[in-house]
Amino acid sequence: MNNKIIAVDFDGTLAENKYPYIGEANEELIHYLIRHRKNGGKVILWTCRDNKELEDAVNWCRTYGLEFDAINDNLPEIIKAWHTNPRKIFANLYIDDRNKMVHKKSKYGEWINVGKNHIGDDIWYCSKCDYDEICEAPDLPTYCPKCGSRNKISNR
Questions:
Q1: Which pLDDT score is estimated for 138?
Q2: d(CA 57, CA 60)
Q3: Structural domains present in the chain
Q4: Is the model's pLDDT at 124 over the cut of 50?
């Protein structure tokens, strides 16, 4: 079971940045997050949007099948464990266009760079099975350790 928490931005990350409107979907990232949740992981929407713009973004994500475990807030289990709810959202992985651009569209059998973690390491995932690998590009394995597919690096 996956218990990793991912905090993800909306404008420029899940959708092309057209604020206050909503741009084109980053379907690759949306698919990755849906699978992450199905595998037991948690996803927090972490955005500057509020009020109607936030409601529009959440509803837009639902049309793609993406739900969130929290929105601009820490998960209840984190609040309980820490006996506080700090302003900073706790996550194991932060995906945000201001950190590193997230790209759309890939072919199967690629290591896809989806951003950086909170300490600046590159995050890659296998486009075939969504296995995560955190390392520098030269250190990526040729074969995915989870599904065995031979992967090339996609760092568009």
A1: 58
A2: 5
A3: 1-99 (3.40.50.1000), 106-156 (no CATH)
A4: yes
Cis preceding-peptide flag for 20 (omega within 30 of 0): yes
Q: Are 118 and 94 in contact (CB under 8 A)?
A: yes
Q: Which two tokens stand for residue 36?
A: 């992450």
Question: If pLDDT is split at 50, 70 and 90, which confidence band does 144 have?
Answer: confident
**Coil, helix or strand for 45?**
strand
Using CA atoms, how far residue 145 sits from 22, 109, 129, 135, in Å, is 37, 13, 10, 14
DSSP per residue over 60-93, as a string? HHHHTT---SEESS--HHHHHHHTS--SSPP-SE
pLDDT higher than threshold 90 for residue 100 = no
